[in-house]
Amino acid sequence: MTTPARTRVAPSPTGDPHVGTAYMALFDKAWSRKTGGQFVLRIEDTDRNRLVEGSEQQIYDSLRWLGLDADESPEVGGPYAPYKQSERVDSYRPFVEQLIESGHAYYCWCSGERLAQMRAEQQASKQADTGYDRLCLGMTRDERAKLPGFSPTPVVRMLIPDDVPLSFHDLIRGEVKAPRPDDQVILKADGFPTYHLAVVVDDHLMKITTVVRGEEWISSTPKHLLLYSWLGWQAPLFAHMPLLRNTDKSKISKRKNPAARLMWFREQGYLPEALRNFLQLLAYPPADGEQEVTSFDEFVEGFDWAKVSTVGPIFDVKKLDWLNGVYIRSLPTGELASRIVDYALESGQWSEIPEGGRELVLAATPLISERLVTLAEALPKLQFLFTADDQLVFNPVAVGKLKDNAAEVLTLAAQALEQLDEWTTDAIHQKLQTVLVEDMGLKPKFAFAPVRVAISGEQVSPPLFESMEILGKQSSLARIARLIAEL
RNA sequence: GGCCCCGUAGUGUAGUGGCCUAGCACGCGGCCCUCUCAAGGCUGUAACGGCGGUUCGAAUCCGCUCGGGGCUACCA
Q1: Are residues A380 and A481 in the same domain?
Q2: Strand B nucleotides in reach of protein CB atoms, 7 A cut-off
Q3: pLDDT at position A256, please?
Q4: Which nucleotide is nearest to A287 if distance is taken from CA to C1'?
Q5: Hey, which residues does A167 pair with through a beta bridge?
Q6: Nearest nt to A432, CA vs C1'?
Q7: Which residues contact A51 (CB under 8 A, 6 or more apart)?
Q8: Predicted confidence (pLDDT) at residue A127 exceeds the cutoff of 70
């Protein structure tokens, strides 16, 4: 049996949470659950220039929304706190010192300008291997200061050996080769570690056993492995997930794809369970005969790294639309109704719950549940129920499409309904069926169309008779009378 | 430019040498059901990037080629 895995997701709070964070978190959490381990959330905020206010909180909120909240995090704490890199800055220094002493790292005083110039020259000469030219290697500060392109605040670089191992085992891909790294900076001039050092130190200190990250990190894995071995630590297992893509196949970005923002889904009225299922499907296709719609528990149950896809999927929301409908339809009425209300409040469709609004939504939810793609569509479909009889607007297009006999049909309908004592869906249906379809000989389609327009103002509406029952006799008759008058 | 990852219908994929005249899901089209729209049922459409090998036999193995992507930062 597998030993309990400690996995982690490590987003940077540099803007709206990225959908990729949830995507990684899903697989992290699944693996930790499968093995009975823990799932850790660490905030990687070493890039002080790109921090965005409020971003961190949004990361917590959106992961929780998806049911992907962590067992240990800055928010809930844990045995390896702090879980924020900025609060761990002091822990990196000793390791940097150790690496310098053991000759695996060295100071570099080259200025940004010199490095830029060096790169430009390498580019121009179409040199095979680019990378830092090791000008500072073996020099003291004073020696280096005499040369041009000197910066008084040094960085620390890794000294990549010629025999650096370039291949490693990946849980998803098997044996993977990676490019040869150059002398990567591990400590910046501002004293903060770069990602490469921080990730290795933190993962080790937090006892992370399995690193799940995007495919874009394959090329830097040799650096990380080198660090582990120099520091005498056991490296974790790596799982490099396929990259989510835009329609043009580039790595998914907020600029090209609104869905790259995790909050977008919530704003659009997608259900978290549907999104979770969708993200799962992207990288974890069901084998023949297996179910596409699965719960998180079922996902965990059969989880196997070997089944994760290696091809970066294009993020196509069409399938999510379908999945969302599936999940909406599977929700109990009361639950769906309350989600519709919550969404209305959250999205601003409602500034507050109108008088009797909750009850009305609950009563009307069965009429629309199988007609919804997202929660956002619910209230607009029910708008006519929330509109006063004399405020209802009859859509001119809908009115225009009615047959010439519409007024006659409505008059007969009104007369018949007037006498109806029992105001229920069945009774209304039966009555109109008798009067309009059987007695008048109209096709049901044409018989009920005028009534639908009278009741809802539109050509298309939730089921008519059910709507009339909810509206009540008085309102229904008032609306029919109004449309007759307008014809 | 260099190194690396990847390549089955519009999209996501199944497929690990014969069960493939390539399966499934979404999408799209048609039919049925039907008070509209949905949902549901039935059904149709459409793919192994190319070229060479290996083999009795290749979507599956090998080589080349083409295509896409990633990395190549004192970003992550």
Answers
A1: no
A2: 1-8, 10-15, 23-27, 34-40, 68-76
A3: 82
A4: B14
A5: A177
A6: B35
A7: A13, A14, A45
A8: no
Asked if residue A153 and residue A237 are part of one domain, the reply reads yes
Residue A83 included in any domain: no
Q: Residue A240: which of A214, A264, A262 has the closest Cα?
A: A214
| DSSP β-ladder status, A174-177 and A105-110 | unpaired
The CATH number that applies at residue A61 is: 3.40.50.620
Which residues in range 441-470 of chain A are in contact with strand B, contact meaning CB within 7 A of any of its atoms?
444-445, 448-449, 452, 459-466
On whether both A175 and A209 belong to a single domain, the answer is: yes
Q: Which residues 338 to 397 of A reach strand B, CB within 7 A?
A: 370-371
Which H or E run contains A109?
strand A105-110
A84 part of the active site: no
- CA A168 to C1' B55, in angstroms, rounded, equals 33
**In sequence order, what are the residues at sequence separation of 6 or more whose Cβ sits closer than 8 angstroms to the Cβ of residue A359?**
none
Residues pairing with A106 in the sheet: A157
**Amino acid A246 CA to nucleotide B51 C1' distance, rounded Å:** 31
Confidence check: pLDDT of A47 > 80: no
Q: Strand B closer than 7 Å to the CB of A57? A: no
Q: Which of A84, A188, A207, A254 is catalytic?
A: A254
Q: Is the CB of A34 under 7 A from strand B?
A: no
Domain membership of residue A139 as a residue range: 88-241
Domain tally for chain A? 4
List of A residues 60-119 with CB within 7 A of strand B: 110-112, 115, 119
pLDDT of residue A126: 64
Distance CA(A171)–CA(A236), nearest Å, equals 11
Is the pLDDT reported for residue A1 higher than 60?
Answer: no
Q: Is residue A99 part of a domain?
A: yes
Percent of chain A having pLDDT more than 90? 72
A358-414 pLDDT tens trace: 999 999 999 999 999 999 999 999 999 999 999 999 999 999 999 999 999 999 999
ipTM score of complex: 0.91
Cα–Cα distance for residue pair A311/A155, rounded to 1 Å: 37
Question: Encoding tokens for residue A407?
Answer: 């007024």
Shared domain check, A290 and A326: yes
Q: Which of residues 189-228 of A touch strand B (CB under 7 A)?
A: 189-190, 192, 194-196, 215-220
The one-letter code for the residue type at A401 is: K
* Residue where a domain terminates, one of A241, A274, A302: A241
| pLDDT, tens only, A241-259 | 988 888 888 888 888 888 8
Residue A237, in any domain of the structure: yes
Q: How far apart are CA A383 and CA A288, in angstroms?
A: 43
Q: According to the model, what pLDDT value does residue A249 have?
A: 82
